[in-house]
Amino acid sequence: MNWMEIIGAHVMWKQRLTAFLAGNSTESLDPDTIRLDDRCALGQWIYGAGKAMSELPRYEEVRGLHAQFHQYAAEVVNLHLSGNTVEAEKLLQGDYSRLSEKLKHRLIGLSSQVKAASEGIPRF
């Protein structure tokens, strides 16, 4: 699992959403698909091989934050598609950005815990 790649992919979502709201994107974003938190590499790990790490202190927090991240991203797209770009922008710059930053930091913590667990280092 390449944690930096996973983190980078989620950080890039803000740029994708910003371009989408500005009309500078050729991407067709579907809120119903974005809402699914088990489609990206991190989601596949969380609901697949990562379940073996579910007792790690950061695992459940990351799972919840990741699900909320996808909900917020979907809502940004949904608001924009409904003609409410001002509210979409507020969500993107507010709650979405704060949650995205928190998720990034928790992923870094989880990656350290997974590495330690994989190497047999005791967790505290």
Give the strand tally: 0
End-to-end Cα distance: 23 Å
The radius of gyration over CA amounts to 16 Å
SSE string: HHHHH
Architecture overview:
- With 124 residues, the chain is an all-alpha fold.
- Helix content is 71%, strand content 0%.
- The longest helix is centred in the C-terminal third of the chain and has 34 residues, at 85-118.
- It is elongated and about 50 Å long.
Layout of SSEs?
Layout: H1 3-22, H2 31-34, H3 41-47, H4 59-81, H5 85-118
Summarize the structure.
By secondary structure, this protein is mostly helical. The chain is built from 5 helices and no strands.
What key attributes describe this structure?
mainly alpha, single chain, 124 residues, elongated
